[in-house]
Write a structure and sequence with these properties.
It is built from 11 helices and no strands. By secondary structure, the chain is mainly alpha-helical. It has one domain.
């Protein structure tokens, strides 16, 4: 029941943080409330689409293929509501660059199809469906509704909300912190891009050699990449992804003047999601590749040179 319990904790944490935020007496401006309502309507529409399409097709990667698209809609809606001010426009352009990169990477894996609800399913969902706790169809259905669809789409909205602070009546003018956020965003976007290229080239060559037959040479015999950025941390793409959304939070800090504000919860929950996701991915990798546990022992998960226990 580990997976189900983790999902339940994240789901409860989502509403707990929202409850705490609501009770801190935060007052949103009329413009912020109007825009937030619009974003919530979009989010609810996408949630319904994900639930219906996944249940009808049996493909549970609906959220995966929209993960890189929905934040673009939120960013440009906010930029439009802001009258395309320089901060909102810069953030929308950066989020679009992020979305294009992630969508292209997902497309290379066969994740998209001319029918929008089809395409390759993320391999991890197949593994997850085999877990004992999901052998009852009702358990998987509830997991799909409340965690895969509702929670993850709600989280995407939540970690996009620092952009809502651009609309506050007391939002500060574009300044130094915004420029720092832009620079960091581009840096981490490049890290993601390089990590994806390294992973793609490794896997392409590995499968080419497999098709030729015979014993695989090093480094492909291990089955997984542990060179380049992947020699520094085990998940350079995940690490950069989290920092990209921290950069979006920095834009919110620049606008509000508050280093700790109510939108921080979205970033915190995103970190927890990536922790759980990487745990599951590594459990699969360790079962497939005998040397993966050595890799875990040798290389940090997200932060270069920093380890926590066995992570």
């Amino acid at each position: 029941m580990k997976t189900f319990a983790t999902a339940l904790i994240l789901f409860v944490s989502f509403f707990l943080i929202i409850y705490l935020i609501y009770n801190t007496g935060i007052v949103l401006s009329t413009e912020e409330i109007k825009t937030l309502k619009l974003l919530i309507y979009v989010c609810l529409g996408v949630i319904i689409y994900c639930i219906v399409s996944s249940e009808l097709t049996g493909n549970y990667s609906q959220v995966d293929r929209l993960w890189s698209i929905v934040p673009l809609a939120y960013a440009w809606i906010i930029a439009w509501q802001d009258g395309f001010g320089i901060r909102a426009l810069a953030c929308a352009v950066l989020v679009s660059m992020w979305g294009i990169r992630l969508s292209a990477n997902f497309a290379l894996k066969g994740g998209y199809h001319w029918l929008p609800w089809k395409g390759e399913e993320d391999y991890r969902w197949e593994y997850l469906r085999k877990e004992p706790e999901f052998q009852k169809r009702i358990n998987w259905f509830l997991f799909n509704v409340f965690f895969i669809s509702f929670y993850q789409m709600g989280l995407i909205l939540y970690f996009s909300l620092p952009m809502l602070l651009f609309l506050g009546p007391d939002a500060a003018a574009f300044g130094t912190l915004d420029i720092i956020a832009i620079g960091l965003f581009i840096f981490f976007l490049l890290v993601e891009l390089i990590a994806d290229i390294q992973q793609f080239r490794f896997q392409k060559e590995k499968y080419r050699l497999k098709a030729e037959g015979g014993e695989l040479p090093d480094p492909y015999a291990k089955g997984f990449i542990d060179s380049g950025l992947w020699a520094i941390v085990r998940h350079p793409n995940y690490a950069a992804e989290q920092m990209i959304w921290f950069c979006v939070y920095l834009f919110g800090v620049a606008a509000s003047g508050e280093w700790v504000n109510w939108t921080l919860g979205g970033f915190i929950l995103l970190v927890l999601l990536f922790k759980g996701s990487s745990d599951f991915s590594e459990r699969i990798s360790a079962s497939k590749y005998p040397k993966y546990k050595e890799y875990i022992a040798r290389v940090p998960r997200f932060i270069p040179g920093l380890r926590f226990g066995k992570s």
